[in-house]
Amino acid sequence: MASTDLTGRIALVTGGAQGLGEGMAYALAAAGARVVIADIQDDLGGKLAETLGADHGFVRLDVTDDASWSAAVASTVERFGGLDVVVNNAGVEITSLLIDLDPEDARKTFDINVIGASLGLKHAFRAMRPGGAAGRGGAVVNIASVAATIAFPGIAMYSASKSAIDRLTRVAAMESGKLGYGVRVNCVYPGLVPNRMGAALADDVARIGLFGSPQEAVEAVVALTPSGRLATTEDIAAAVVFLASDSSAFVNGAGLAVDGGMGM
Predict the structure, then answer these.
(1) Rounded to an integer, what distance in angstroms lies between the CA atom of residue 225 and that of residue 216?
(2) pTM of the full structure
(3) Can you give the pLDDT at residue 1?
(4) SS3 sequence, 248-262?
(5) Which active-site residues does the annotation give?
(6) How many domains does the chain have?
């Protein structure tokens, strides 16, 4: 029977120093993986790695920079002896009505959310494919969003970037299969989580006049969710562990909605 036991596997989590990434790091470690926190936040990332224990580590990674990816993956393989899982989690959300769109904010959103994940796939494939530095296949889990499947006002650029993650995931899975890389590629669509990013979004959509208050914005999201609540970090992290594990061995090029039915 397939298992979610990740003992012996090495997992790199981008944006892993806080928020959803931190929760994913804890969940992957609990499943037995050795986890590498990859982030630009040296202090937070280093402290989390220390908290996880000696079998885990931190690498500085700017996901928008190709050379930074090369160095982070090389360091991970050298220190831990391989690379089996890459979680492309790093992302930003900058709330704005389309009528007020700032091109620089839009470029930043796509640079981090889309280019960052694309470079993650590039370097995961290069390391994991036969003949690569790790060379034993593996799994990539991209983090999209329920925003890719619904029309929620104020987050057009974020929604567009996460829709791109959906397509990117499917093309990457096909390329990996056709070229024999042995790497499965899937994505997760998280629902709204009441963490720092989620709270900031609620504040922002109220500030620009879409809702009367942040609480009203949250209540609107819950009202759209058949499960009747917001997502938790643990909900999302469990999905990542599943997609990284042998329990999902025949799941490839798929998007897993963990949104309580909001995006159905």
Answers:
(1) 14
(2) 0.96
(3) 54
(4) HCCCCCCEEEECCCC
(5) 158
(6) 2
